[in-house]
Amino acid sequence: MISVREKRIRKRKKRIAYFSMEIGIHPQIRTYSGGLGILAGDTVNSCADLGIPLVAVSLLYRDGYFYQKLDALGNQQELPYEWNPKKLLRLLKKQVTVTIENRTVYVRAWQYDVVGVTGYLLPVIFLDTNFEPNSEYDRSLSYSLYGGDKKCRFAQEAILGIGGVKMLKELGYCYLSRYHMNEGHASLLTLELLNQRKKNDELTWDIDGVKRMCVFTTHTPVAAGHDQFSYDLVEQVLGDFVPIDFLKIMGGEDNLNMTRLALNLSHYVNGVAKEHGKISREMFPGYAIDAITNGIHSFTWTSENFKKLYDQYVPGWRTDSFSLRYALSIPKEEIWNAHYQEKKALIDYVNAEINIAMDCNTLTIGFARRATAYKRADLVFFDSNRLLNIAQNVGKIQFIFAGKAHPQDWPGKELMKKIFSASSELKDNIKIVYLENYDMELAKMLIAGVDLWLNTPRKPKEASGTSGMKAAHNGIPSLSILDGWWIEGCIEGLTGWSIGSAHDAENVDERDANSLYEKLEKIIIPTFYSNRQSWIDIMRHCIAINASFFNTHRVAQQYVLNAYAY
């Protein structure tokens, strides 16, 4: 049992507050929807492993994101994904208030303790309004992630940013020197910091003081992805919390742009890949925007069979992900045996769920990410006849898809239906399945069990992407558009293969599909079936080159050096 004194000492040692609208820290804590939340969870896990003095803050969503059900045609149904926080979190005694639409909204906190590999404890604080005496509407602000209208969304962001800063102070985290905003959702925290640092007799804001405390990571390479709210709505929700004239200077003249607010009140800003940093500087000229390429938490996303291999041949990899470069010394037959066991587990699962009789010896291609138009999950079916000809004359292939579409993303929902249609059209020659309710547990099985990871985003909309990094930790090469992280991770024929050229300024579906088919027909399928030793060599290089670099241990260390040590 930790004494009260020890708890106080631990809180005093925390120097960094990490804010994220969603966080995927545990499969059963359903406060994440996809890449942003998983990245946050992986970053927190690495900070715990490395002993970085950080406390994380997010919101508690009682209904989670949603549980996905798919019918025989691929129509998505969204169901509540309820979970009981009492089973995994500890309710804290402290409460704070946030004024929303002139109402006092009470906010409480739950805590989940992440324990690093050396025993270091890192707290994750989940903010919650779903309790009395809050009104039913105010309680509903904690119901679901990315649910509701604009007003609900802005109120949630006020609870995260304003309520989060207040809660940390109330809980005794009084020595924080850095506030890290993981995307613009949390940028209202800057306003709470300004208010706390302004003395009653002062009429000016301590902008420089707040900037020294704030760090901002942007994840979105397209303008539509940056949250914006009308100033009428801002006044309605926040009242006179901060003068609108000041907000217009900090957050944009026409609407409150949450990204611009964070840009103007942070001393360090970064994108999540080298290319994304460049694109962000073009989107927001005049701002110094660095780049720290994303990674994943190696231990979380490495399958059990590969963990055993690494423990045997790369001792110390759990705390030093960079040591995975020594994977080149692992015997090829042991790499293949570990992969085959993971593949068999996946194929057995698919056959039990779908009853499609997939085969463990067939080249299995995986595609799993958010179902939205720019991801182009259907690109591989651009010319079904050509794909069929490849499968019949070069070598058998089968596909496993997964991913949720946002409830309001109708083009994304149509994309899933297209894949179901392709599955029906090609079923006599190519087995294609779409697994429902993509989550952390299913992702772990997929990224370890397929033979090839496919990624076909439309440039330049992939800020980074992390699913291919997870696959690489399990020796799975990627076939991907040269966007996001793959520009840095692709060594042609050694860690995987590119679709199209780095010189292509934009994507043309026909050109990209032809490139995809060329790689499958002339290189990938022949290598898989006729040159297994070369295939395994590529698997080893995926681990040694990509897994050793694209991990959140390296990411966390870069944040410490570049952002937190300012």
Describe the overall structure.
- With 566 residues, this protein is of the alpha/beta class.
- It has 2 domains: 4-295, 3-Layer(aba) Sandwich (Rossmann fold), CATH 3.40.50.2000; 317-550, Glycogen Phosphorylase B (Rossmann fold, 3-Layer(aba) Sandwich).
- Helix content is 42%, strand content 18%.
- The chain has 21 helices and 19 strands.
- The strands form 4 sheets. Strands 5-6-7-2-1-8-9-12-13 form a 9-stranded mixed sheet.
- Strand 18, helix 18 and strand 19 form a beta-alpha-beta unit.
- Helix 4 packs across helix 7 (231-238) and helix 5 packs across helix 6.
- The protein is globular, with a radius of gyration of 24 Å.
List keywords for this structure.
566 residues; alpha/beta; Rossmann fold; nine-stranded mixed β-sheet; 42% helix
